[in-house]
């Protein structure tokens, strides 16, 4: 081998050694970096697992707290319902006691008072309606009863039935006692049926009174609207009518003030026409007084034909005027 080839080979060998050393150093650095990345990844996984455990614990605590709040709210709702039911039950018990006392008083009054006359019933006449047929009863109470829901009515009915219906103690009773018990129940059924009939008739009368009052109110509103010159059905609605002060077909802007519109609405066209006539009459009277009489008589001293200075016994007349007077006298004489 020549020196040049030897030098070239030496150069290539050195270059190869340098590349191998560089590659070994790169592999070593890559191993170190990879071990560092694996360590960081392991730490991140540990932190993630720890955070997941903490989050699960927090969610568990939150769920437990919400469950306790819901239970507390449910208990409060139940307590409120129980208090309302107890108050309603006490109120109905008090009403039932008052009703029973009233029925007993009415029964005693009926037994103590005896009529001193005899009622003869006619054939086909309706049965007597009882004492509940007052013309104007408690309308507000009826409206409150009508506004109740089905659930409220069912609850009140259940409580009332639980108060009114008593348990039958028929254990150990013989035949006579059972017959007596049955007769008492029958009498109670008759009393309840009579009360039911009276209440139904009272409800019919109240419905009739409400219809009559509504009709009277409608007639009053109709007359009021006619008096103001409006549509007859203007005041029968829920809200008062609008103040129509101009036609909807006019394109001119209404420049009148609110006071003028209100006066027009309160008085109507009749009041405006009356004011217009009074104003026109005053203007014409004033014009007539300023202008004076349009025609003066011949004998009137203020006539321009006569002398300006009037002296009794010295008045002068025109010949034409005397001739006209004579002609009129002759014509009147001939006609008569």
TrEMBL record:
One of its GO terms (molecular function) is tropomyosin binding. One of its GO terms (cellular component) is troponin complex. It comes from the Eukaryota. Residues 29-47, 54-99 have a biased composition (Basic and acidic residues). Pfam families: Troponin. Residues 29-134, 292-315 are annotated as: Disordered. InterPro entries: TNNT, Troponin, Troponin_sf. One of its GO terms (biological process) is muscle contraction. Belongs to the troponin T family. Troponin T is the tropomyosin-binding subunit of troponin, the thin filament regulatory complex which confers calcium-sensitivity to striated muscle actomyosin ATPase activity. This is Troponin T. It comes from Tetranychus urticae (Two-spotted spider mite).
